[in-house]
Amino acid sequence: MTSCDSKQVFDEYKSVGKSWHKDSIVNFQVKDLDTLKSYNLFINIRNNSDFNYNNLFLITSMNFPNGKIITDTLEYEMAYPDGKFMGSGFGEVKENKLWYKEKVQFTEEGVYQVDIQQAMRKNGKIDPIEKLEGITEVGFRIEKVN
Questions:
Q1: What pLDDT does residue 6 have?
Q2: CB of 45 closer than 8 Å to CB of 135
Q3: Which keywords annotate this record (predicted)?
Q4: pTM (predicted TM-score)
């Protein structure tokens, strides 16, 4: 069986293992994008019940073919106020499709690299969480804008 996803241009997941280390950067390389079209970009996160937080903080970098880098610090809600996880899925693993950037044009030809790193800290603490439990996979998705 195959599914038809006419918006999808790129969709890939990478496992972070049993825990996502603070220094572990998940990267995705994308090429052959139409320089005249606009795209919506998403970060996909799969988490399980070992994730003990309501929010998720990420640092992303988009590396352009000419060497320019755009870095963002992002925060996403991962749970409702009652503690129930957001996202889709019937078992323990929930999948979240999170907005990253809207109506982006990739005007340079070549390979773009997107880096994603967790930036979690406990409330009131300066030091990062060294090993973030409960995130199983990190994905990156590009869709055509209709």
A1: 83
A2: yes
A3: Lipoprotein
A4: 0.92
Which of 10, 12, 8 minimizes the C-alpha distance to 27?
12
Domains, the chain: 8-144 (2.60.120)
Question: Which pLDDT tens digit goes with each residue over 88-142?
Answer: 987 889 999 999 999 999 999 999 999 999 999 988 888 899 999 999 999 999 9
- Using only the alpha carbons of the chain, give its radius of gyration: 16
Quick check: 96 and 77 in contact, CB under 8 A?
no
Fill in the amino acid letter for 19: S
Q: Are 139 and 27 in contact (CB under 8 A)?
A: no
C-alpha dihedral sign at 79, 94, 146, 27: positive
